[in-house]
Amino acid sequence: MTIAASLLAACIGAVVGSFVALVADRWPRGEDIVVAPSHCRDCGRRLGARQLVPIVSWCLQGGRCSWCRARLPVDLLLAEAGGAAIGLMVMAQSPQWPGALALAGLGASLLLLVLLDVRHLWLPDAMTLPLIVAGLSCGQGALDLVSGPPLADRVAGVVAGYLALEALRRGYRMVRHRDGMGGGDPKLLAAIGSWLGYAALPGVVLLAALAGLGWPAIEALRGRQAGGDTPIPLGAGLAVAALFWLVFVQL
Ligand SMILES: [Zn+2]
């Protein structure tokens, strides 16, 4: 992997990360995603080209709107940096174009799920269910676009991932008479199983649990204080753990 190719992959990834952050901001509000130009949430002024360079603009403006000086969400910077890292991951895997696009699609989808879960505790079926179909379709034994476990292992990953967390979710509700986990988490683990196979799931869940321990520090970075009753976005932890697993274990 040459330096120029890595830089290009990181830049494209950062641009995609910026778009993912925009989708995560507008989708839950029911706003137009494609046509409406980017603008400041506080003063409403339209952003120019200088304010739209991923990572660079955020840093040069000190994390504030250049018109009204309102704070920009740190999630935006993290999404752009995460997108750049995903671009490098796809480049390091360096499969043929269809495989690279499949991996990039997986990375961007997981990044969007992280943002939606962190901000809204929302893992929409419109994201998780197509991700299951894509995982079963793209891997070994189907279209063979990305390396990884055979189809049977990935089908087992879907079933095991869903059943394990759904049983935990229902068991908690039966014992505590309240929800301890969202309904989207089992579907997300099923989607992760469809790409990584059943054998990866215990490691992914363990990593997600460890990521959960760092949640108060992440909340502090976002300018909030996490208390004992603050819900932890398990889905975001699972998505980050799956990306970590893809890069450092499976590839
Ligand atoms: Zn502003």
Please give a quick description of this structure.
This protein has 251 residues and is mostly helical.
What does this protein look like?
The structure is a single chain. This protein is an all-alpha fold and 251 residues long. The protein folds into two domains: 1-94, no CATH class; 123-251, no CATH class. Helices cover 65% and strands 0% of the residues. It has helices spanning 3-26, 56-60, 74-93, 97-120, 125-138, 151-176, 184-196, 201-213, 215-221, 234-250. Helix 6 runs antiparallel to helix 7 (184-196) and helix 8 (201-213) crosses helix 10. The longest helix is centred in the middle third of the chain and has 26 residues, at 151-176. The protein is globular. The two termini are 15 Å apart.
Indicate the topology.
Elements: H1 3-26, H2 56-60, H3 74-93, H4 97-120, H5 125-138, H6 151-176, H7 184-196, H8 201-213, H9 215-221, H10 234-250
Bound molecules: zinc ion.
Residues 40, 42-43, 45, 65, 67-68, 70 line the site of zinc ion (ZN).
